[in-house]
Amino acid sequence: MKTIQKMYEHLNWANRRILETLQSIEDENQRGRQYFSHILLAEKVWITRLQGSDSSQLPIWSEIDIEVCAELVKQNEESFTAFLTNVANTDLDKIISYTNSKGKEFTNSVRDILTHVALHGQYHRGQINSRLRAEGVEPVTIDFITLVRTKP
Asked: Carries keyword Metal-binding (predicted)?
């Protein structure tokens, strides 16, 4: 559980860092904002599933402005923090059933879903950094080791 909690500490930190950069150049990086929107919307979908609610009608790819992104960063961090605080080690192997946006049903363990969400976001944050570099903007340092080096 400590590793998963650390992964979410990193996820939240990285999301805040990407948000700050996109806020400072909002009009200049539409594709980066699309990727970031996708990360945040997907996090919202997954936490909804983990909470036992239907997520099939929630968007995964949708154009949202930077202010909505900022609110989602905050909401997702609060939701995942509360979820991780309440989940016990024994609950990590609990199986969750859900229906995706195309109507297909799946089952996965809480552990696998939490791992997926953390890795999914990092993949797309890398795409955002690639877009930033292509547009002449310094990429955001979001490596996990950078986070842990700053912690006592």
From this structure: yes
Q: 14 near 121, Cβ under 8 Å?
A: yes
**Hey, which bits of 48-140 come out as E strands?**
95-99, 105-109
Provide the pLDDT for residue 88.
74
Name the packing angle between helices 66-86 and 30-50 (round to 10°). 30
Cα torsion angle, 137, 130, 100, 81, sign = negative
> Is 120 labelled a binding residue?
yes
pTM for this structure? 0.93
Is CATH 3.40.720.10 the classification given to domain 2-149?
Answer: no
Please state the domain extents for the chain.
Answer: 2-149
The model's pLDDT over 89-132, given as tens digits with 9 standing for 90+, comes to 778 999 999 998 888 999 999 999 999 999 999 999 999 999 99
Residue with tokens 């990193």, as numbered in its chain: 10
In which region does residue 5 sit, left (phi positive, over 0), alpha (psi from -120 to 50) or beta (all else)? alpha
- For the record, the structure tokens of 103 come out as 């109507």
Residue 124, marked binder: yes
- In the predicted model, is pLDDT for residue 26 greater than 70? no
